[in-house]
Write a structure and sequence with these properties.
- The protein is mainly alpha-helical.
- The protein has five helices and two strands, in the order αβαααβα.
- Strands 1-2 form a two-stranded parallel sheet.
- The longest helix is centred in the middle third of the chain and has 54 residues, at about 80-135.
- It starts with a helix and ends in a 5-residue tail after the last helix.
Length: about 170
């Protein structure tokens, strides 16, 4: 009797497992970030910001180079005390430049992260809505996928929905 009971339970569990079906899809987040209108807008904003900051830093760097060249050309003319003062001032200016450069890089990276996170939050909202609407159980990032059928790729659908949204940065 106990053998029949265990046999029945094992058979029942295998039957349930055989009939259970998981609906899986995958999405390419890199493609969404790079090819969506919002992603392209972010990239343009970041490139413009980077160029603007690099131009400002280049001007300061040129001024420092000019100061250094001036100091080298006048090093034989000026006395030791004045040369030391100018060298110390130049070193101080170079240190200030390096601090400014580091700060600008940090600010740029924070902006980049902020914009990308805002875009990823919108993508996540669209994914959640799409998953609920289409009864999808699991969505996997394409980067983590070895292979899959093309019909399981929902990237195009998510891209269409993302392009409909107007995200402000």
């Amino acid at each position: 009797m106990i053998k029949k009971f265990f046999f029945f339970i094992i058979f029942f569990l295998f039957y349930i497992n055989a009939n259970a079906q998981t609906n899986v899809s995958f999405v390419d987040l890199k493609y969404l970030i790079n090819e969506s209108e919002s992603g392209k807008k972010i990239n343009k904003i970041l490139v413009d910001l980077r160029n603007k900051e690099n131009n400002k830093l280049k001007k300061i760097q040129d001024q420092l180079k000019k100061q250094e060249d001036d100091l080298k050309s006048k090093s034989n003319i000026i006395n030791d005390e004045e040369r030391k003062k100018k060298i110390n001032k130049l070193k101080s200016d170079i240190n200030n430049f390096n601090v400014l450069k580091t700060k600008k890089e940090k600010d740029f990276n924070q902006k980049k992260i902020e914009y990308k996170n805002k875009l990823l939050n919108e993508i996540n909202k669209i994914l959640v809505s799409y998953v609920e609407k289409n009864s999808i159980d699991i969505v996997i990032k394409k980067e983590n996928l070895i292979t899959g059928k093309k019909n399981l790729d929902i990237t195009k659908f998510i891209l269409e929905e993302l392009n409909k949204k107007k995200i402000k940065f």
